[in-house]
Give the backbone structure.
Amino acid sequence: MSAPSFSEIVRSHSTRAAELMGVSSAVQTILAEPKRELIVHFPVRMDDGSFRLFKGYRVQHNNILGPYKGGIRFHETVSLDDVRALAAMMTWKCALMQLPFGGAKGGVTVDPSTLSRGELERVTRRFTHDLGDNIGPNHDIPAPDVGTNAQVMVWMMDTYMNTVSESQKQVQRAVVTGKSLAAGGSQGRDKATSQGMIHCLQRWADDHRVDLAGCSAIIQGFGQVGSHLAMLLVRLGVSIYAVADKSGAYKSAEGFNPHKLVAYVREHGVLAGYPRAEPISQEEFFSTPADFFFPAALQNAVGPAEAERLDVRLVVEGANGPITPEAERILLDKGVDIIPDLLANAGGVVVSYFEWLQNRRTERWTLAHVDARLERQMNEAYMRVSLHAADRGIDRRTAAYALAVAHLAEAYEERGVFP
Ligand code: GLU
């Protein structure tokens, strides 16, 4: 029997949760499939004058709670199955966080590090153009994900705004979130996912009477999420002894200085070559004893072999779906606690919601205001998940999915199915 695909894994989580919550089979059937799936092929002129054909996706999983919402991923492994899985996860994440959004995800199969800045801009603009009115501020709102950033969002916004009439332009700014401040982005959006993870970590530490100062961590993935997380952790007195990205794994006996490490990665693109680190094997990385492990790379990056090696107390999932179900079973059996993706990394979409609100109301919130609202929403969601898990005697992932599925099922039961 072949291993389940990513979308099958996500579906098995939601099916288990739906059964647990007694969701009707009609609603389960509706939620099992995305509402719409778009695949586009588009040519882009490369710097050498040649043309290359790219493949892009947007999967709109569900919009019963509000406009479709979710990131755009630029990565060489992007496939329809991955985008389907990630779109469904956005539906569950927004429902769990009680945001007025549905779930979607998009992507282009490309390694952005192989593109020049001009090529990246042309890929982004042409993809946005091909998405056409399948996106929109009241319909489907993209955001950054793996391999995209605020600059990519600004190009998307600009391309989209140029397709509407002059009088409509300004209200279209909310078509994407995760924009730069100058283009109408929100304070705190760049660190929001990592900040949300920190709030979960702090609540967990309160519950377990753990003093974070003096604790240790290892981080897998050093993109937006991993790098902001490293800087926030060290402020709390948590030392980082091992880090890994696609260039390899590295350790530092005295603990990394995240500011120097982040500055290095911003300049060189990867961790490789950082002078104050010692290269180690993947096996050694996963075996590094620490209090916390933060997977912030890709889905299914932690399988059974990695789970066997991990010697930590808590895993906080920065990536979406980083741990395979088999690996999760091993970790839970070892007594490792897991704060699941739907909750742990939801800070990103929560602050995306704040950005969308600010754009629509022509407001500008201060960083202190954004941070305070984010903290409140993360703490409330953390409490909901923890209480539900404790009440039912289930793990936190199942509890998070259960709350999300129940919220959606309620909306369906009330509205019924058209016609
Ligand atoms: N890509 C992020 C996620 O997976 C953020 C999505 C958003 O802000 O819409 O949650």
